[in-house]
Design brief:
Blueprint (H helix, E strand, L loop, with lengths): L1 E8 L16 H13 L6 E2 L8 E10 L6 H8 L7 E9 L11 E9 L12 E2 L7 H8 L4 E4 L16 E12 L2 E8 L6 H13 L5 H8 L18 E7 L1
Parallel strand pairs: 3-10, 5-6
Antiparallel strand pairs: 1-3, 1-4, 2-3, 5-9, 5-10, 7-8, 8-9
């Protein structure tokens, strides 16, 4: 039996999604719980990796195991003996053709930015901008240049595990919204390179602060200039959420 599950987590205190030698990856935690439930080692396959400190509202994973007690009891079984900062909230039996990673067609991320200083109850989930104020209209105009299919190699960081990844991605949505002094960056695409969302968000924030011109971003997108310097604009992990995965 193959089970498709959806979970959410506060990534602050974990070493990312992927299983780690430290045992402190989200995947480690879920696999330890599954081993306790089923009495044997079970491998979890996620829709993709989130980095250390990145959060998820709807991360999808699957695993194979025989379970005859229904989805609701499986979800309840997940709720015992795991940190409260991880919650599995849905489970569904699917056919063997489903794969959490390879069946995904779109991923949606959100990055939250606060103009000002975050409260002690919110600092783990938002980037505090301090005194800066963002020109959201200008940022949205710049973001439109990234819609459609492009080679995003200039906006992805090097990673030993994805050196052969296809750098051409399709973006269907990329925009900023404002609610009071909170600005949220929303992006939905076919996939993302390592740290790509945080680098793009950082570049567009610099546009909103008047520190980067749109033309330089467009030139880098189209391979007309070396974009090594843009990777330094990568924002901290705390404000980033994997919002949903579409199949």
């Amino acid at each position: 039996m193959r089970w498709k599950c959806t979970c959410s987590y506060d990534g602050t205190d974990f070493d990312g999604w992927q299983s780690q030698p430290s045992g402190n990856g989200i995947q480690n935690v879920l696999e330890r719980r599954l081993a306790s439930i089923f009495g044997t080692s079970i491998r979890v396959h996620g829709s993709g990796r989130t980095d250390a400190g990145v959060h998820a509202l709807r991360q999808v994973f699957h695993f194979d195991a025989e379970w005859d007690h229904g989805a609701e009891k499986l979800v309840r079984a997940f709720g015992s003996n795991i940190p409260k900062t991880i919650q599995v909230f849905s489970a569904k039996e699917v056919n063997q053709a489903f794969h959490a990673r390879f069946s995904a067609v779109r991923k949606r991320y959100a990055y939250r930015i606060l103009e000002g200083e975050a409260s002690p109850f919110n600092y783990r989930y938002v980037l505090s901008l301090g005194r800066g104020r963002l020109a959201v209209d200008k940022m949205n105009e710049a973001a439109e240049n990234f819609l459609g299919e492009h080679d995003f190699s200039a906006f992805g960081a090097a990673h030993a595990d994805n050196f052969s990844e296809n750098t051409v991605k399709t973006m269907w949505e990329m925009r900023f919204t404002r609610s009071g002094n909170t600005v949220t960056f929303i992006t939905e695409g076919s996939g993302y390179l390592y740290k790509m969302v945080r680098i793009l968000a950082g570049c567009l924030v610099q546009v909103g602060l008047g520190k980067i011109g749109v033309d330089s971003l467009v030139e880098a997108l189209h391979g007309k200039s070396a974009a090594q310097n843009f990777r330094k604009e990568c924002l901290p992990a705390c404000g980033l959420f994997l919002d949903r995965v579409c199949y």
